[in-house]
């Protein structure tokens, strides 16, 4: 009997020891895993802090220090949140790719659809450009400028988060065939031109420090669900003070839209944006690309700006105009817009109008168009030399319109023969 009890006691002791060892092993595994997670979290945090500094986080804080709450205005997203929003930056989510990076479609946890711009791997020479875009867009609140929602600097490459603009670019609308749902009518072209001109006038004149975009082109003009124009891609933009010029060692921009004066002098002014807008306006009038790939016609080897100016000088606008705009009873309005584009494309920057003047000129064309179908409507010719107020939800300006003639005073350039 005592032998059996002895054996039972030994078995109990063995069971206890075994259970204790098992618990110890489990505890060791848990402790090891916990320690691993803590170490990994610390390493991830240090890595993110390293990326934050490398991606210009300190530069962002420095640039925003002059503006109280500037950093807070730019929402900082976590890498985890944006990775989830873009489904791990799935290639199926790509909206577009360009020289500065790739844009992905994403959905935030609150259900908002966004566009996430993943920059290319940057070096120190490109950091300022990226942070510059963040700072500039954080200061802008305009219905015709794409809204920056925030950024993420804790990833290997920096990320920008914008409002999602669903209907592509103006370039696509103009050049990629007819949109059956939205024909490119004269009224639509004029409205888009007015919206873009108003946004640029705001950037040049209505903000505390003038902002020059430096890369205005139809592919940088997005269209929202109502086909309202939104100016985008401020990566090469500059805030300029005092002399309102910017001297660069490397000329940046897009050929076909690039101001020849800026190309020669490397000195960018507000009139350089005006030139680029003139090319966009010429695109809207002609539906021709800024740089043509055609080789059969010698004239098509020239830029659109050059061909447009030649047509204007030769009094042959009809030869380059989009055929859809001919014989629609809008000759005076189209001619006035062409004259305005010609002024924007003047090779002498000093002779170009300001964007504020361009915006007012386009508004006067719109008013004249309305007058032609509405009785007792006061035309711009009745208010020449007087102050006119144009405004939207974000800004208001009053200016003189005596530099613009009434549309009815413009000599037709579209020959009938």
From TrEMBL:
Origin superkingdom: Eukaryota
Keywords from the named record: ATP-binding, Kinase, Membrane, Nucleotide-binding, Serine/threonine-protein kinase, Signal, Transferase, Transmembrane, Transmembrane helix
UniProt-listed Pfam families: Pkinase (PF00069)
GO molecular-function terms, A-Z: ATP binding; protein serine/threonine kinase activity
Catalytic activity, reaction form: L-threonyl-[protein] + ATP = O-phospho-L-threonyl-[protein] + ADP + H(+); L-seryl-[protein] + ATP = O-phospho-L-seryl-[protein] + ADP + H(+)
Domain Protein kinase: 89-367
A single GO cellular-component term on record: plasma membrane
Listed transmembrane segments: 12-36
Record has Nucleotide-binding as a keyword: yes
Membrane topology category: Single-pass type I membrane protein
Keyword ATP-binding: yes
SMART domains: S_TKc
A biological process from GO: cell surface receptor signaling pathway
Subcellular location per the Swiss-Prot or TrEMBL entry: Membrane
CDD domains to which the protein is assigned, alphabetical: STKc_IRAK
Protein's name in the database: Wall-associated receptor kinase-like 9
Gene behind the chain: LOC113708149
